[in-house]
Design a protein that fits this description.
By secondary structure, the protein is an alpha/beta fold. It has one domain: Alpha/Beta hydrolase fold, catalytic domain (Rossmann fold, 3-Layer(aba) Sandwich), CATH 3.40.50. An eight-stranded mixed beta sheet has the order 1-2-4-3-5-6-7-8, with helices on both faces. Helix 3 crosses helix 4. The protein is globular.
Length: 223
């Protein structure tokens, strides 16, 4: 359904992305942020599914063409470790938001694993977004504090997660509550990455519940 396009970042540099357009020209937009594996087919499938649900969806390629096989966690860790998260957020992610806003519609952001953390970073740093729905990812408070979040947030987290741990989620939620932010967090009796249908940890029931909640959230805030 979608296609690879070139977007222009605010700094004038170019970045690639996977764009899946909705049937309606003036549809609201959603930026989709990849897992630490890169912009693989599963993330493109998320964008396609959002397009079928009535959103213009754009997944910027934060690894510039590198896609890591699922079995190679070491390589994925190296790719994520070498990513300049602030540059990716302020430039590539914001560039994607600006692209989607060209039709005058509102834009939200969602992301998974590493992309969940980037989604929260964007909720703090990118004024073009109207809402954010991160999945099992929270950035360190050295780069993004809960009090810095500027838009409504809907988070989806796994109770069995050794990367985005329940303790990390609890601490971030406490910060949001203390700062009086608009948020809603959902926790699932599942493992990290449970939405990814290509992984053994996929939980179909919880994934569909989370997907429905995310769509309702986006439709509410992007109308």
């Amino acid at each position: 359904m979608g296609t690879t396009i070139t977007i222009v970042r605010p700094d004038g540099k170019e970045a690639a992305g996977y764009f899946a357009p909705a049937a309606e020209a003036h549809a609201p937009g959603i930026v989709v942020i990849q897992e630490w594996w890169g912009l693989q087919d599963q993330i493109k499938g998320v964008a396609d599914r959002l397009a079928r649900a009535g959103f213009n969806a754009l997944a910027p390629d934060l690894y510039s063409g590198v896609v890591v096989p699922y079995h190679d966690r070491e390589a994925a860790g190296k790719q994520m470790g070498s990513l300049n998260f602030l540059d990716a957020t302020d430039q590539s992610v914001r560039g994607a938001a600006l692209f989607l806003k060209q039709n005058g519609a509102k834009v939200g952001i969602t992301g998974f694993c590493m992309g969940g953390a980037v989604s929260i970073l964007a909720a703090c740093r990118v004024s073009e977004f109207a809402c954010a729905a991160p999945f099992y990812g929270v950035p360190p408070d050295t780069v993004a504090k809960a009090a810095d979040v500027k838009i409504p947030l809907q988070g989806h987290f796994a109770n069995t997660d050794d990367w985005c741990t329940p303790a990390t989620v609890d601490a971030f939620e406490a910060g949001l509550k203390a700062a009086g932010k608009t948020y809603d967090f959902f926790r699932y009796d599942a493992e990290h990455g449970f939405v990814n249908e290509q992984r053994a940890k996929h939980d179909r029931e919880d994934s569909e519940i989370a997907w429905g909640r995310m769509l309702a959230f986006m439709r509410k805030h992007l109308a």
